[in-house]
Amino acid sequence: MTLDGTQHSRSTTVGGFDRTGGLWVLAVLGGGGLGLGALLPAVAGWLRDAPWVPFEGPLRLLSSFDASWLTWGRPAIGLAVGLAVAAWVVSATPVLEVDPQEVQVRRHGQVERVIARATVAGVHRRGSKLVLESEHGRTLFADDVEGDRDAVRRAFVEHGYPWEGPRG
Q1: DSSP characters for the chain?
Q2: pLDDT (tens digit, 9 = 90+) per residue, 19-34?
């Protein structure tokens, strides 16, 4: 709402990863894959000898690969898998386009669903999830939305959605 009591007509985008956050996810998961690929034979060998670990056969197989190309190949494969998982995580994170008439939920760059404002009776946090509910308590949307919690709350409040509960 503006100072004169009218609602904003422009939409507000919330959620998703900003550039820094996306790069952070890529670095952490890519580095984790790289490290796991480099340490795989040692970890598999250690786990193979532990009496409480199941699947001794596959662990024995993983720890037995000793070809010279695997010295650099395992870390490279781990890095590629880690980066692929990170790219999926970043693109699968919901981005919400909030305006006075509707909320568009986008994932992977595509509009996944549109929630009409008339159906939203309440917006609140349940743990780390943002929840949009209908008048009869039906969950219209419930998922983790990245970004500043107060900015997410502000986007809904400024466009006239009923925010329930504490700030953020």
Answers
A1: --TTSPPP-S-EEEES--HHHHHHHHHHHHHHHHHHHHHHHHHHHHHHH-TT-S-HHHHHHHHH---TTHHHHHHHHHHHHHHHHHHHHHHHS-EEEE-SSEEEEEETTEEEEEEEGGG--EEEEETTEEEEE-TTS-EEEEEE--S-HHHHHHHHHHTT--B-SS--
A2: 999 999 999 999 999 9
